[in-house]
Amino acid sequence: MTKTVTAYAAFERGGPVRPWSYEQRDARPHDVRFEVMYCGVCHTDLHSIGPWGRSYPLVPGHEMVGRVIETGPAVTGFGEGDLVAVGPVVDSCRECPPCQAGLETMCLTVATSAYDAEDRHGDGITRGGFAETVICDERFVYAVPGGLDPAAVAPLLCAGSTVYAPLKQWDAGPGKTVGIVGIGGLGHLGVKMARALGSHVVAFTTSAAKADDALALGAHEVVISSDPEQMADQSNRFDLLLDTVPAVHPMTPLVQALATGGTLCSVGMPDTFDVAPFALVLGRKSIAGAGAGGTAENREMLEFCVRHGITADIELIGRKDINTALDRLAANDVKYRFVIDLTA
User: Fold this and answer.
1) Domain 160-289 carries which CATH code?
2) Which of 198, 201, 224 is nearest to 211 (CA)?
3) d(CA 17, CA 315)
4) N or C: which end of the chain has fewer CB within 10 A?
5) pLDDT, tens digit, 9 for 90 and up, residues 298-332
6) Helix, strand or coil, per DSSP, at residue 135
7) pLDDT over 70 percentage in the chain
8) Which residues pair with 286 in a beta bridge?
9) Is 160 helix (H, G, I), strand (E, B) or coil?
10) Rounded mean pLDDT of 157-177?
11) How do the domains of the chain map onto residue ranges?
């Protein structure tokens, strides 16, 4: 049956979020409905409220953890009271090669986003986790492992997945030198995960004030990327550079830091890549992009995080603080991920 849900929505492009109620659809046979306990605040939420938004009112939020309150009759993997999580993707075609391989985020017909997307079954626009409850097909619902703080697990479903998938894709591990560029919501998890995978980890930051923090997160070394001399010392060194910076920035010095055959993978989604093509030619170097992982990678990522005790470093906020958090996030004033406590 439909459910009236109280949520926090943006009503205009670039506007603040405020309370709003809407009718959440009926559960389909494979659906799980859960009460949202915690929801991370991502840069994507800022972009979606702003230039990326398509339909308003828009309910953001795609890093969700909560408890199951209803399951459809065909659901087999979850029951009432289970602690679950949902990330940025809530549906896909299920039929194309990426979907068949558990890489639904790469669905050739474009995966259905957790919010501001057309429901594939004609049930209107998807709504995100800044809300009392969320409903989602069980294929895209993840069991939250025991032993981890549920609030700090929420950002793993986007930020954690976005760094884990490329680290695995490009074989980060023992004997590899991996650089993490930018120590923020994605970068701090990149440092933790690359270290846990066994890589030699170097953190790149423009802020000398973050050096001690980066070492505490697990980096073996820190490079101040705004220092030309320090950058010159990194030439031909890295097997993989994971670039988490969302703003346009010079990438040529980073490419020059790659070893022969190395890869610079951008996950920060800057508007353009600022790189000299000739830098790629010298050493057969590559520049690539990546986003959040699919269902198979996300389940593997959560198991990995349990084994290594990895969660996000968070600032837990209340509902009344959402707009302040969005403003602070826009100013890069967070260490390292805001999470909304929807239980209070």
Assistant:
1) 3.40.50.720
2) 224
3) 19
4) N
5) 999 999 999 999 999 999 999 999 999 999 999 98
6) strand
7) 99
8) 263
9) helix
10) 97
11) 3-158+293-341, 160-289
Q: What does DSSP say about strands 133-137 and 31-41: parallel, antiparallel, or unpaired?
A: antiparallel
3.30.160.100, 3.40.50.300, 3.40.50.740, 3.90.180.10: which CATH number matches 3-158+293-341? 3.90.180.10
Tell me if residue 174 falls in helix, strand or coil.
coil
Antiparallel, parallel or unpaired: β 200-205 and 177-181: parallel
Q: Is the pTM of this model over 0.70?
A: yes
Q: Are 191 and 214 in contact (CB under 8 A)?
A: yes
- Calpha distance 132→66 (Å, rounded): 10
As beta bridge partners, residue 339 has: 40, 316
- Number of CB atoms found within 10 A of residue 181's CB: 28
The upper half-sphere exposure of residue 290, i.e. CA atoms within 13 Å in the direction of its Cβ, equals: 28
| Contact (Cβ atoms closer than 8 angstroms) between residue 181 and residue 204 | yes
Q: Check: CB of residue 292 under 8 Å from CB of residue 301.
A: no
Residue 110's CB is within 10 A of a number of other CB atoms, namely 11
Task: Please tell me what DSSP assigns to residue 1.
Answer: -
- Comparing CA positions, the residue from 103, 116, 3 lying closest to residue 49 is 116
Whether omega before 277 lies within 30 degrees of 0, making that bond cis, reads no
Read off the tokens for 260.
């022969």
Distance CA 79, CA 68 (A): 7
pLDDT in tens, 39-73: 999 999 999 999 998 999 999 999 999 999 999 99
